[in-house]
């Protein structure tokens, strides 16, 4: 239910009743006053209550939660979806048992899920928000693994005096490698190739 009509002795009372039933906060809804309260004849005969229509605002975060909830239900996955909304981005954390199927090989399924949710949740929104999805802390673990790999291969390139070519990675993972090594003065990094086969080269400085 995305909207509800409620009555009350006052507009505020009717609104509070609607918020309680919808289980949302006031800043998450649009309020339309259908009818103001009136006391009627002699102040009590024919008293009319206030009537309001309260509609839940469509936001990217709400759309993302609904879409992910449907996907998890169709896959028979019991999960907790935690959403943190910031100024320009939305952070989604999914937790539950046996979620490897949502991560896929090196996060490929997770990246595809994130891409689809971004497209769907931001559709028809005046202001787009970047949605980042993580599952059971996978992205942090993957980031730590990539940093360790970057340091190891940078040392290898320096010691051997020749380029080291990494396997193809997506733009987010390439950024982690570049950032991890940008402070080194003995090697430098660059990317070459076309997506989805674009890869990083770690080269020793002459």
TrEMBL record:
Quaternary structure (record): Forms a complex with KhpA.
Keyword Nucleus part of the UniProt annotation: no
Gene source species: Desulfallas thermosapovorans DSM 6562
Gene Ontology, cellular component aspect: cytoplasm
Cited CDD domains: KH-II_Jag, R3H_jag
GO BP of this protein: cell wall organization; peptidoglycan biosynthetic process; regulation of cell shape
InterPro entries: Jag_KH (IPR038008), Jag_N_dom_sf (IPR038247), KH_dom-like_a/b (IPR015946), KhpB (IPR039247), KhpB_N (IPR032782), R3H_dom (IPR001374), R3H_dom_sf (IPR036867), R3H_KhpB (IPR034079)
An MF annotation (GO) of this entry: RNA binding
Function text: A probable RNA chaperone. Forms a complex with KhpA which binds to cellular RNA and controls its expression. Plays a role in peptidoglycan (PG) homeostasis and cell length regulation.
Family: Belongs to the KhpB RNA-binding protein family.
Protein name: RNA-binding protein KhpB
Alphabetical keyword list: Cell shape, Cell wall biogenesis/degradation, Chaperone, Cytoplasm, RNA-binding
Location of region: Jag_N domain: 5-55
A Pfam family the protein falls into: R3H
R3H domain location: 140-206
Source superkingdom: Bacteria
Places the protein is found: Cytoplasm
UniProt free text on domains: Has an N-terminal Jag-N domain and 2 RNA-binding domains (KH and R3H).
